[in-house]
Specification:
Elements lengths: L2 E4 H5 L39 E7 L4 E8 L4 E8 L12 E7 L3 H11 L28
Antiparallel strand pairs: 1-2, 2-3, 3-4, 4-5
């Protein structure tokens, strides 16, 4: 079952989960939060994303997240804590990398692998209008 978190959960309160109350886990069906497609009229930033799908999480502040609301080819990778920080109190204490637009899937997959986070690979249907986001160059091989 997919896991979703808000930007606030990931960056400020990773030990809390305001999006998925425990009672949702008692259902036999998948309950997904609402989403809306991004129009790509301007680049996304972390501040534009309200909900993320958790692709992988590890200890020490490692995590890979995909934009869910709005839904776009935008990924956030948290690569640990800034040396000397004790708690997740400020976003500046988390090291963050983002990947956006065409080729973002391949780039985040490669970077996650470098950090020891293994992501699953799935075949996904893509509408013709969105194919430009998934074109692979020779450099972008898994």
């Amino acid at each position: 079952m997919p896991i979703f978190k808000t930007t606030h959960n990931i960056l400020f309160k990773p030990d809390e989960d305001e999006l998925n109350p425990v009672e949702k886990l008692n259902y036999n069906i998948e309950i997904l939060p609402p989403n809306k497609e991004w129009d790509y009229k301007r680049p996304l930033t972390i501040n534009d994303i309200d909900i993320w799908e958790v692709l992988a999480e590890g200890s020490g502040g490692l995590g890979v997240y995909a934009a869910w609301l709005p839904y776009a080819e935008f990924y956030m990778l948290t690569v640990g804590m800034v040396p000397g920080s004790i708690q997740y109190r400020y976003v500046d204490e988390r090291k963050i990398e983002t990947f956006y637009g065409p080729g973002a899937q391949q780039k985040v997959f490669k970077r996650a692998k470098e950090l020891g986070l293994n992501l699953a690979v799935y075949n996904t249907w893509v509408d013709d209008k969105d194919l430009w986001l998934y074109q692979k160059s020779n450099q972008d091989q898994y």
